[in-house]
Amino acid sequence: MPRAPFYGWWIVAAGFGIEFLIGALMFHAYGAYAVKLREEFGWSKTMLSAAFSMARAESGILGPIQGWLTDRFGPRALIRVGMVIFGAGLLLFSRIEGPVGFFLTFFMMAVGTSLGGYLPISVAIVTWFRRRRSLALSISGMGMALGGLLTPIVVASLSRFGWRWTAFASGIVVLVVSLPLAQLMRHPPERYGLNPDGEPTSLGGFRSNTLFASGEPPNSST
């Protein structure tokens, strides 16, 4: 009987997909949104740049809290919450009418991408890999960079349908795609009868085939 693929690679793929969405629909797309916002509201480049800088600073400030939350609730729960906040932020962003709403919704999106992005994904991955940890983290991290490949599609949507419709549709995409990806996250492998890097274990064949089932192993909450 062929050996099932090591489940850790599914976690890497899920991390790649989530980071791809964050990169494509927020960080790489922000410049295109800024052009449209400036055209509609007449806002200065300084104000638009300040919002983006705030998002980057927020990631550093929130770091210690993220670490505690990840230890307390596990990566999967944090990713779920983060992606819901990110998706809801995009939906609300599509309805803004002034700078206050803009800063609030952008801060909301920044918090969501921090809670559901690099840190909890990395925590999940490092528990599943030792020898191939660097490779696994590199593949997952590529999602953020490769998200830029969707920028032309986002720009085309902004031009054809407008920034409000594009932001709303992006929020729906985040919720529909990222939540199933978050469901693939498991932490740590020993809880499921597996070892890092797929090292042999007497329970590995059975448990790895049950991870996609709707039920969870006993005492599993993350």
Entry keywords:
222 residues; mainly alpha; Growth Hormone, Chain: A; 10 helices
Give a quick summary of the entry.
This protein has 222 residues and is mainly alpha-helical. The chain is 73% helix and 0% strand. The protein contains ten helices and no strands.
Description of the structure:
The chain is mainly α. The protein has one domain: MFS general substrate transporter like domains (Growth Hormone, Chain: A). 73% of the residues lie in helices and 0% in strands. Helix 1 runs antiparallel to helix 6, helix 1 runs parallel beside helix 7 and helix 3 packs antiparallel against helix 4.
Major sheet description: none
| Count of helical regions | 10
Q: Tell me the CATH topology.
A: Growth Hormone, Chain: A
Helix content: over 70%
Roughly how many Å apart are the termini?
30 Å
Question: Judging from the principal axes of the Cα atoms, what is the shape?
Answer: elongated
> Strand tally, please?
0
What is the highest CATH level, the class?
A: Mainly Alpha
| Average pLDDT reading | 85
Structural class: mainly alpha
- The CATH architecture assignment turns out to be Up-down Bundle
Question: Could you name the CATH homologous superfamily?
Answer: MFS general substrate transporter like domains
The succession of helices and strands, N to C, reads HHHHHHHHHH
List the helices and strands and how they pair.
Layout: H1 8-27, H2 30-41, H3 45-73, H4 75-93, H5 99-116, H6 118-128, H7 133-146, H8 151-161, H9 163-183, H10 204-210
Helix pairs in contact: 1-6, 1-7, 1-9, 3-4, 3-5, 4-5, 4-6, 4-9, 5-6, 6-7, 8-9
